[in-house]
Amino acid sequence: MDKLIFLDNGATSFPKPEEVYTFMDHFYRNFGVNPGRSGYDLCMETGELVETTRKMLTDFFNGKDPNRLCFSCNSTDALNLIINGMLKEGDHAITTTIEHNSVLRPLYHLYKYSGVELDYIPFDDKGFVDPYDFPKKFKKNTKLVIVNHASNVIGTIQPLKEIGRYCKENGIPFGIDVSQSAGKIPVDMEELNADIVAFTGHKSLLGPTGIGGLYVREGIEIRHTRAGGTGVRSAVPTHLDEYPYRLEYGTMNTLGVAGLHAGLKWIQKKGLEYIHNHEMKLTTMLRDGLKNVEGVITYCQDDLTDHISIFLFNVKGLEALDTGTILDVDHNIACRTGLHCAPLAHKQLGTDKIHGGVRFGIGPFNTEEHIKAAVEAVKEIAETRR
Ligand SMILES: Cc1ncc(COP(=O)(O)O)c(C=O)c1O
User: Whose CA is nearest to atom 5 of ligand 1?
Assistant: First the structure.
């Protein structure tokens, strides 16, 4: 059988740049010790890689203080730290219907079990929220607005700058989920008026699974929701207040940091503009190839301005899962079907009734040949179905 065509980069990027594999192997063989206050050379070298990567990520998001960049397991972990550490009974939070469950579920838990009030801003028929809808929902007890930068379902880039401006004017902390956008388009927290950024390492940042983090602007208060070892000041009985230890717990995934370090370096070498242009050229090819095919329904893909390379479609008369299975079994194409952990987005698109959609996620290593094959495969499935 032909080689696998991987179009599931929205779930995780694969493959990684060769440099990521090489550097992780080199790092773990030579420096795979636990960083902390011990003075031996290996420990210092490992610690240095962690601190250098903190600095690189801080610069990447245009943060000011590398100490306020905390590593976590992934963005779900970071978002839980943010949401649970910022909201308490009687508070109000605003989010959107285009969020991932890593935002929706922690918020819903607080609503259900801790008396936190929630408002959800819907997106329009092109897949964008209207920034002006946010201040209409602001209340005295609004303590957090949290919105994703780019949708993992339809790929639309949300107008964060304007939402952030309203939040800033009203003194409401603004958190952004950049899980899909970081590594594809610039994430400049100053420009976007964001106070907190949550990221994951294994998607477009091209690192491995198990590493992510958050950046917290000075003045933003996130309570401890966990406690444990920090490797420093062990005699203090409570978890440390100072950053980055405040939001880091236990032995760090240094191997993950190493991979993320190499992924970031690769992105910097190629440039975000190059990566985004390449991916959007392929997304446009896909859109054009499937636009007028009878029996293919696409969602919010007509205008690819303010989009990342995520493409959602269905074949009329087939459930998404069946289309995905045919793509896999007959065409050796990997994609992601279902609700994509974003049930409210699918509900609004009306795709929840047919168990979701088929998502192609295009990455930096996809080629025109991959897209041509995907277009032909979907055409064939639609034709057979007719
Ligand atoms: C928009 C968005 N937010 C959050 C996440 C969660 O990422 P992770 O599973 O790495 O925590 C994802 C992953 O699919 C996502 O697409």
Answer: 179
Output the CA 76–ligand 1 centroid distance in Å. Answer: 6
Of 214, 253, 211, 273, the closest CA to residue 16 belongs to 211
If one counts every other C-beta atom within 10 angstroms of the C-beta of residue 332, the result is: 15
Taking phi over 0 as left and psi of -120 to 50 as alpha, with beta for the rest, 127 belongs to left
C-alpha torsion angle, residues 298, 100, 16, 54 (rounded to 10): 140
- Give the position, in ligand 1's atom list, of the atom nearest the Cα of 149: 1
* Nearest by Cα to 87 from 149, 212, 173: 173
Per-residue pLDDT of the chain (386 residues; tens, 9 = 90+): 469 999 999 999 999 999 999 999 999 999 988 887 667 888 888 999 999 999 999 999 999 999 999 999 999 999 999 999 999 999 999 999 999 999 999 999 999 999 999 999 999 999 999 999 999 999 999 999 999 999 999 999 999 999 999 999 999 999 999 999 999 999 999 999 999 999 999 999 999 999 999 999 999 999 999 999 998 889 999 999 999 999 999 999 999 999 999 999 999 999 999 999 999 999 999 999 999 899 999 999 999 999 999 999 999 999 999 999 999 999 999 999 999 999 999 999 999 998 999 999 999 999 999 999 999 999 999 999 87
Pocket probe mutation, ligand 1, options 9, 153, 180, 310, max atoms within 8 Å of Cβ: 180
| 102, 160, 211: residue to mutate for ligand 1 pocket, most atoms within 8 A of CB | 102
Nearest CA to ligand 1 atom 12: 179
Pocket of ligand 1 (CB under 6 A): 74-76, 100, 102, 148, 152, 177, 179-180, 200, 212, 341
Bridge partners for 307 per DSSP = 156
Strand-pair partners of 200: 212
Kindly give the distance from the C-alpha atom of residue 178 to the centroid of ligand 1, in angstroms, as a whole number. Answer: 9
pTM above 0.85, yes or no: yes
CA of 47 to the centre of ligand 1 (A): 27
| Residue 312 Cα to ligand 1 middle (Å) | 17
